[in-house]
Amino acid sequence: MYTSGYRYDWQRGLLRETGAINIDIEPKQALVKVNGIQVATKMPVRLNDRIPGKYQIQITSPGFFDWQKETEIKNKQTIYIKEISMLRKNQPSIVMEGQLSGLALSADGQYASYFRKFEKINEVRLLNLKNYTDVLLAAFPEETTPTVLWAKNQNYLVISERAAPYQSLVIIKADDPSNKIDLMALTKYPINRYEWKDAAEPELYYSTDLRLMSFMPNTSQRYVLGKNIWLDWHMDNGQLWTLQTATDTKQIELVRDTLGFSDIFAPQNTFTAGEQELSILGSRNNTVLLKKNGKSEMVLLANGQKYNLAGEQFRISEYNNWWLIWTPWEIWTYTQNEEPNLLNRSGESLQNVIPR
């Protein structure tokens, strides 16, 4: 016997308060089981007058992974299960073949760029991961190694040679790959460094021997930020970090917020005589990573300490500010307020590290 919000318990002779479960997810044609008993075969599902307690919900649909969850109903409470899309069981398929390398994903994962060696040409290609259309973006001679840098938050990429100064630097919007912006043609001077700004709108910082500038591909506007009088530079959240030469000793020092309040983050006595040729790789939360030019050695500055590490490449996890630094033979990790940790060392040739 039921009444609105109540259910009569025949075993105990009591009128008990009840709750409800409402389910509405994708796909609509899905089988719903509650505590192992089938209750529905399509959405939406309304299960009213449920005695308070724990319930095991299982949702299945052909071609999708099962969804399961234990939920608890309390007196006069309705549990809503919605805004859930079940994961489709996709079968792997071959989308490209050949001598491929340099696979990199766009910010939203909709596109992938990669390199293909075809006859005596190094091709840079773009693959649409929704419809698997593939287009040629650029072609380089066999002796020239290209590189691609995706914008951090948009589907824009830059193509250039791997080694500076760059004689070719092309900006492409992946949604419209035929529309290419040749930044070299606009600048008319060789570009020696570039990096994307971490912002809502695409903006590329770049420098020549004379100036530090920025370029907005959405509007084709260029802005001069200042004279390029530094050994190296890096932009982090609007702050310009620079490596400079001290006028009195000619030794290098690291300066933070050069175009703003400008304070010396690492004075000249931080670096040894063998560390006078460095490049700034990245910074975050007052942690800076530098690399010795032409060597598999890096310098990490954090918490007022200096750490020398073996490293050729690095990555910062977007989820927990976890730094990963590696060579083909070992991986180092760093977390803020802790010391670097040697995570792994082996004889295998390590190509890439992706944090999860």
Protein described:
This protein is 1% helix and 54% strand. It is built from one helix and 34 strands. The strands form nine sheets. A four-stranded antiparallel beta sheet has the order 6-5-8-9, with no helix packed on it. Strands 11-12-13-14 form a four-stranded antiparallel beta sheet, with no helix packed on it. The longest helix is centred in the middle third of the chain and has 5 residues, at 183-187.
Largest sheet entry: 4 strands, antiparallel
Q: Helical proportion?
A: under 10%
Q: Write the CATH homologous superfamily of the largest domain.
A: TolB, C-terminal domain
- End-to-end Cα distance: 52 Å
Low-confidence stretches: none
Summing up helix and strand content along with how strands pair, one would put the structural category as: mainly beta
Overall 3D shape:
globular
Strand content: over 45%
Task: Round the mean pLDDT to the nearest integer and report it.
Answer: 88
Number of DSSP strand runs: 34
Q: State the name of the first-level CATH class of the largest domain.
A: Mainly Beta
**Sheet with most strands: strand arrangement:** 6-5-8-9
Query: Total domains, how many?
Result: 3
CATH topology of the largest domain: Neuraminidase
Radius of gyration: 28 Å
CATH architectural type of the largest domain: 6 Propeller
User: If helices are DSSP runs of H or I spanning 4 or more residues, what is the number of helices?
Assistant: 1
Pfam families: PEGA
Protein name: PEGA domain-containing protein
InterPro entries: PEGA
Domain PEGA: 19-81
